[in-house]
Amino acid sequence: MTYKVAVIKGDGIGPEVVDEALKVLEVIGEKYNHKFEYKFLLAGGCAMDEKGTPLPEETLEECKKSDAVLLGAVGGPKWDDPTAKQRPEQALLGLRGGLGLYCNLRPALLYAPLRAASPLKDEVIGDGIDFSVVRELTGGIYFGDRGRFEENNEQYAYDTEKYSVTEIRRIVKTAFDIAVKRNKILTSVDKANILESSRLWRAVVEEVAKDYPEVKVNHMYVDNAAMQIVRNPRQFDVIVTSNMFGDILSDEASMITGSIGMLPSASIGENNRGMYEPIHGSAPDIAGMGLANPLATILSAAMMLKFSFNLQEEAEAIEKAVLRVLEAGYRTGDIFSEGMKKVGTKEMGSLVIGELSSVKVPC
Ligand code: IPM
Ligand code: MG
């Protein structure tokens, strides 16, 4: 079978980490007899430089024609002028909105060999951290009405948090479906003591919950959730929340696992369409130096196989290979600790491929 993948390498370390993920996909293709057809596209700062816009029309159109999108990272100090009309991040919002990717899945998983890299105390980590943040991605304050105006000689700016029942129901149902396949605990995070949109959110969660009697549901205010994630992360299985709360909490969740350089993410829409990217940014300070950790992008490619192409076994082969490389003590700078073997981006990619090559494919 041939899968069409739109590849957006992006800015900073994006190209380096994506290249390693593509090498891994090639090995998967050979081993399991799949063909991946790539279309390389521009988005972000590099697209602003070359095409004068962060998301050229061609990029969005080609992504729509593809089965999935694999993205490195966008942004960097070169384009970081807060007064500028165009910003690289607009490419992400344009892709999310344009492709209808309403569900952002960010697993917070502590890899056992990286335990020491977590900033949390051993007794807090206990037997491990493994939960998933399900973030609404095409609504809320990110897409609501915003603007500036003047009143009584004073400048004002505003942004609007707005959600429809349909938008909430869609993401909440997805989160329940994910919880059913995991440990069946769903925490819905909101600010219902203040926000009207949160009160609606809560009501919809309650309504959808009736269809999932096997899932234990609880509601948590976002400030409390931020605290609970570092106080007792083991209480969580699946967290579902709005676009902005999810943005904030997923960064916190990734941090406690030891390295943001390890975590993949999936943004999924109708018909399994998806965009897959590492959680980390473009890390301009180490761009082009061969130091970046490619594992988050490699694991994002694994998520692509799992969610968009339904290739479970292939995805698990990648995940296992990554775990074995970590168990063998190899580390990029971001996850390095005393006594481990320090490697660069390319070496890390090759190590994963080495492990993959030893996986036996059942005939
Ligand atoms: C993320 C990022 C983006 C977001 C930015 C870069 C627009 O922080 O993917 O979490 O806020 O969604
Ligand atoms: Mg973010």
TrEMBL record:
Its biological purpose:
Catalyzes the oxidation of 3-carboxy-2-hydroxy-4-methylpentanoate (3-isopropylmalate) to 3-carboxy-4-methyl-2-oxopentanoate. The product decarboxylates to 4-methyl-2 oxopentanoate.
Q: What is the lineage of its organism?
A: Bacteria, Bacillati, Bacillota, Clostridia, Eubacteriales
Q: Where does NAD(+) bind?
A: 76-89, 281-293
What does the sequence similarity comment in the record state about its family? Belongs to the isocitrate and isopropylmalate dehydrogenases family. LeuB type 1 subfamily.
What is its quaternary makeup? Homodimer.
Protein's organism: Clostridium manihotivorum
- Positions binding substrate in this chain are R96, R106, R135, D223
Marked site: Important for catalysis: Y142, K191
Where do the TM regions start and end?
A: none
Q: What is this protein called?
A: 3-isopropylmalate dehydrogenase
User: What are the residue boundaries of the Isopropylmalate dehydrogenase-like domain, all occurrences included?
Assistant: 4-352
Tell me where on the tree of life, at the top rank, the source sits.
Bacteria
Q: Name one GO molecular function term.
A: 3-isopropylmalate dehydrogenase activity
Give an example GO cellular component term for this record: cytosol
Ordered alphabetically, the record's keywords are: Amino-acid biosynthesis, Branched-chain amino acid biosynthesis, Cytoplasm, Leucine biosynthesis, Magnesium, Manganese, Metal-binding, NAD, Oxidoreductase
What's one Pfam family here?
A: Iso_dh
